[in-house]
Structures are given as C-alpha cells and as structure tokens.
Write a structure and sequence with these properties.
alpha/beta, four-stranded antiparallel sheet, 10 helices, about 240 residues, about 25% strand, six-stranded mixed sheet, about 40% helix, 10 strands, single chain
Length: about 240
C-alpha cells in the first residue's frame, strides 16, 4: 500500500506551557479532501503550518509523500501548494503575470497561451487574467491561487480558511475546483469554519478543539448524521 500524501504522526506543537497541537494522527490520501473544523485556537492553522515547514514540531512528525518535512524541507515543498485566507499576489501585475512569476519560482516556465489555459481551468477568463490584480475580487485572487497550484503540478493542496468572505456563488465555484483537483489525484487538506462547504466537498471531516482531533467523520457517516449537531456536541463535551 502506498504512503499517504500527507501524514501527521503524533504531531505536537507547544509554545512554552501552551500546547497548540497535541499528538495529532492524520492521513490524507491522493484524491481525498479532508476538512478540519474547529473554533479559533483549535490547532487547525498550526497543523497547516507544520506541514508547510513554517514552524518545527515540538515532537512527532509531519510527512509529505512519505518524507519528513523537517528532514526534507525543499523536497516536500515541491509537492505542496498553499492557499491562505488571503492569497498574496502582486497587485500591479496582471493575473497572468503573477502566474508566470510564481511558476518560475517553482522552476516551471510556460508560454503565455499555456498560462492563460491554466487560469481558464481555474475559472478565470482571459479578459480578467490580463487585468491588474488590484481590480480583482477575493474570489478571483483565489482562482489565481488555484492556477498556481495546478501549474506547479502540486500533489497536495493545503488551504487555510480559503472561502472566508466569499459570496455563495464564488464559494460554490471554489468547491467545484477543489472537487475537480481531487478527482485528478490531488490530496487536499483544508481548514474551515464553513460547515456547509465542508459537507459539500469533504471525503472526511475532522473536528478539533484545543489542539486535539476529537473525531473524524467519513462522507458516508455525514450522509446519516447532522454535521452541525455533531459539531456542537463535540464543542460542548
């Protein structure tokens, strides 16, 4: 059996006496979308940051495609793409110029027609792709972020509250993009407060509180149970 694309093994992060993440065990396979739900301070963003190597674990291990992030930081980053709540793009560049720049940072060069094709696949039409990012809505910036991930041919996508502040149509379009990427074999790990979106796209949903993963629900279980009721129950216990 092949290794999961993303794996946390007793992953722990503490800042002095404050434990941000406590002994997380989690696996995300290729083609799977795992959503982490929880209040602020639950450990969701810490989990993402540990997979990205932004901070070292106190103990345990984050692995990408079977490689420990702390031991193989450059190799693991090549397989990852990251979309935060606010995608950081150059406002005075066009969408296609941003994509060209970030693709070159990842060691990939594309002709303009290829760049436009990536952006089109992400749902950004050519007219918008050739406008300055300063004119973009948040949803349009998120689409550029997805195009950057696709052009990099990332094997795993890490998303931290990517649909916060999006209108329902933009959030639905974003969910469709994630589902499409998963169908192509990309492993997706996403943090969110949006129970509706999590239920719409997730293969599995993990509920976190105070640095601990309390329970994990599969898509089959989600069809039989009220996610909001389960979530509130876990928050109150």
């Amino acid at each position: 059996m092949s290794a999961p694309m993303l794996e946390a093994v007793q992953l722990t992060k503490a800042y002095g006496a404050q434990v941000a993440l406590a002994g997380l065990d989690l696996q995300v396979a290729a083609g799977e979308i795992v959503c982490l739900l929880g209040a602020n301070g639950a450990g969701k963003t810490t989990t993402i940051n540990l997979f990205l190597g932004f901070t070292p674990p106190t103990s345990g291990e984050a692995r990408v495609n079977g490689r420990a992030v702390t031991e193989h930081p450059l190799e693991t980053k090549r397989w990852l793409a990251y979309i935060p709540e606010q995608v950081a793009l150059y406002r005075n560049f066009t969408g296609v110029e941003n994509l060209a720049y970030f693709s070159e940072l990842a060691g990939r060069r594309y002709a303009k027609r290829e760049l436009l094709a990536w952006l089109s696949k992400a749902g950004l039409p050519d007219e918008a792709a050739q406008r300055h990012v300063a004119t973009y809505s948040k949803g349009m910036r998120q689409k550029v972020g997805i195009a950057i991930a696709m052009a990099k041919e990332a094997k795993a996508l890490l998303l931290d509250e990517p649909t916060s502040g999006l209108d329902p149509q933009a959030a639905n379009e974003f969910s469709q993009l994630l589902t499409s990427l998963a169908a192509q074999g990309v492993a997706v790990l996403m943090t969110t407060h949006d129970l509706f979106q999590a239920r719409q796209v997730a293969t599995r949903i993990g509920i976190m509180r105070q640095g601990r993963l309390l329970t994990t629900l599969t898509s089959a279980e989600l069809g039989q149970r009220d996610l909001e009721a389960v979530y509130l129950e876990q928050m109150q216990n």
